[in-house]
């Protein structure tokens, strides 16, 4: 009997202990991982969720059933129309972000101007972007909202937005609302510059028109900007899935970057020892185009390059400019903004160049790419990239051209722009900007990785003379000309095949080894041709078959002669050496 009682007691005690242990575990979890904060923010979000499109009676912002709900916008517009205007979002940032107290400047010293430009955005999506921003931004900081309709087909959208928002704003009187409509399509770069010109706050935030800011997005960014006036920041972008519009967690282990063809890329970053995941980190480029910067620095940098057209490249250019001219870029993982990454462009790219030139250009591009046609989006991006390469890459622009040979054919014909004159050379002098090389060494070491199988490229120089191809096919002549001439040919040396080729004509420098007097000639490049194989001996270029060296003994005459170590006339230098 007593044995049974004893066992029962033991069971009871064990039960009580287990319950206690579990409670203790819960307390530890709540305290350690800031679950209390999350529970509180969850409740607040639930309250916010009441802001529903239907309840707001902004029914005209719902556009009904197009035949193809996705084609027009590249996301599920029907679903957007039916979701709450301001909806509950999951907390995607690290739990430690909720616990932190941010050191914020006084609101009167940190007024924020938000610039949103859009072209053919779905009404409900644009409204969600704006209402979410207003409801999740501390009122005292949100100084003004500048909305620019970039020539959308839905001409009434902006007017009804203005009517509704002005009425809704009547009681609180803030933020200041500025609405503008471009009568013709001007592109997002022009429009964002225009927004910045109209702005009067201390800080600018550029936002796409299909975004949802997450709770507490502003404070972490503001803290960094207030700490260091040279810094510009991006949040971590949380992807919103275009089909289901579900809000996902963005990756805080990525930084923004670009390659030599000036395409944007996410780059992996490695956490330093003891570096917390939530800590702000330096990034070669912004998180796409969503960035916050002090208005003063933006204008000091002369804004986005106004020569860039329609879409693409502007934030990469700003990033390069910022790094080279004394600034810094940080991504701040405690700040989260959702963005719909669309699978394709949702708009046309009107080519802005003169019609005649455009046709000529398209024909040339077609030839250049062996019949592969560039569409107008690609042509616009290529032109914008060429402008950036020419403006900031110094001698490294040859790498850009090596990867994008067709960019050479694109006429730049930079039209005078209505915005204040934009001259990169002047900006460099004014702000004492560093050469591009510095960025490669200190900011984006990824760019140093050598490209494919090229070992050197750019102009090929002997003393003050550069190797140049004159005339037109088939009467081509090899010459040595002044390196400052417009016609200096760019050469590539291919590491594995040893071919020395011209970038423009795609011809290779060859030697007929069987001839009595070996002669230099230019011929179409063919893989595996011994005649076209060159070796590098320091700065000498030695032909593999004849063992003769390229020589310039008479200053303006290119010959082959026996290799003489240290002969100045046999020393040929490329503008750019690739790292092995
Ligand atoms: C990425 C950037 C965007 C910008 C762009 C390159 C992100 C999240 N977004 O855009 O900020 O840097 O690359 O330029 O990284 N728009 C106009 N006029 C036009 C074309 C577009 O106002 O002629 C608007 C458009 O409605 C949208 C914004 O500009 O609000 C960006 O365009 P997008 O969303 O189509 O391009 P996305 O997200 O690929
Ligand atoms: Mn976008």
From TrEMBL:
Q: In which family does this protein belong, per the annotation?
A: Belongs to the glycosyltransferase 2 family. GalNAc-T subfamily.
> What organism is this sequence from?
Drosophila arizonae (Fruit fly)
Record keyword Thylakoid present? no
Q: What are its cofactors?
A: Mn(2+)
Domain Ricin B lectin residues, every copy: 450-575
- According to its record, how does it sit in the membrane? Single-pass type II membrane protein
Q: In which pathway does it act?
A: Protein modification; protein glycosylation
Principal location listed in the UniProt entry: Golgi
- This protein is called Polypeptide N-acetylgalactosaminyltransferase
């Amino acid at each position: 009997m007593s044995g049974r009682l004893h066992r029962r007691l033991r069971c009871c005690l064990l039960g009580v202990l287990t319950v206690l242990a579990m409670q203790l575990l819960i307390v530890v979890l709540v305290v350690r991982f800031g679950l209390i904060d999350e529970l509180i923010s969850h409740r607040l979000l639930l309250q916010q969720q009441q802001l529903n499109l239907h309840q707001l009676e902004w029914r005209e912002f719902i556009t009904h059933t197009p035949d193809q709900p996705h084609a027009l916008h590249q996301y599920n517009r029907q679903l957007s129309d039916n979701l709450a205007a301001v909806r509950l979002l999951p907390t995607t940032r690290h739990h430690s972000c909720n616990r932190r107290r941010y050191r914020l400047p006084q609101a009167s010293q940190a007024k924020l101007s938000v610039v949103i430009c859009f072209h053919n955005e779905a009404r409900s999506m644009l409204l969600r972007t704006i209402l979410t921003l207003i409801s999740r931004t501390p009122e005292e900081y949100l100084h003004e909202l500048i909305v620019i309709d970039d020539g959308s087909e839905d001409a009434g959208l902006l007017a009804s937005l203005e009517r509704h928002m002005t009425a809704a704003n009547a009681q609180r009187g803030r933020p200041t609302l500025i609405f503008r409509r471009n009568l013709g399509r001007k592109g997002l770069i022009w429009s964002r510059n225009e927004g910045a010109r109209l702005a009067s706050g201390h800080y600018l935030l550029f936002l796409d028109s299909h975004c949802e800011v997450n709770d507490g997005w502003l404070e972490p960014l503001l803290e960094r900007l207030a700490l260091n006036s040279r810094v510009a920041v991006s949040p971590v972008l949380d992807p919103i899935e275009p089909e289901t519009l579900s809000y996902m967690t963005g990756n805080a282990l990525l930084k923004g970057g670009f390659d030599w063809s000036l395409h944007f890329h996410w780059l992996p970053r490695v956490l330093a020892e003891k570096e917390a995941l939530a800590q702000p980190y330096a990034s070669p480029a912004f998180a796409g185009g969503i960035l916050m910067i002090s208005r003063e620095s933006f204008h000091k940098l002369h804004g986005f390059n106004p020569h860039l057209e329609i879409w693409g490249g502007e934030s990469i250019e700003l990033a390069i400019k910022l790094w080279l001219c004394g600034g810094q870029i940080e991504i701040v993982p405690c700040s989260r903004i959702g963005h719909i990454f669309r699978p394709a462009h949702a708009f046309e790219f009107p080519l802005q160049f003169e019609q005649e030139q455009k046709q000529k250009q398209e024909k040339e591009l077609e030839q250049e790419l062996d019949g592969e046609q560039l569409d107008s989006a690609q042509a616009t991006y290529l032109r914008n990239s060429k402008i950036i390469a020419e403006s900031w890459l110094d001698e490294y622009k040859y790498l850009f051209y090596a990867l994008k040979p067709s960019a050479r054919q694109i006429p730049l014909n930079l039209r005078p722009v209505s915005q204040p004159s934009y001259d990169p050379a002047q900006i460099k002098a004014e702000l004492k900007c560093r050469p591009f090389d510095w960025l490669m060494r200190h900011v984006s070491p990824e760019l140093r990785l050598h490209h494919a199988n090229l070992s050197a490229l750019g102009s090929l120089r002997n003393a003050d003379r550069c190797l140049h191809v004159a005339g037109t096919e088939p009467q081509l002549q090899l010459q040595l000309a002044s390196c400052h001439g417009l016609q200096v040919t760019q050469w590539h040396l291919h590491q594995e095949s040893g071919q020395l080729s011209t970038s423009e004509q795609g011809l290779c420098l060859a030697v007929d080894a069987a001839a009595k007097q070996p002669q230099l000639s230019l011929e179409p490049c063919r893989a595996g041709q011994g005649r076209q194989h060159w070796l590098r001996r320091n700065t000498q270029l030695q032909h593999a078959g004849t063992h003769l060296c390229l020589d310039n003994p008479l200053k303006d005459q290119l010959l082959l002669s026996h290799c003489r170590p240290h002969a100045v006339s046999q020393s040929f230098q490329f503008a750019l050496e690739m790292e092995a």
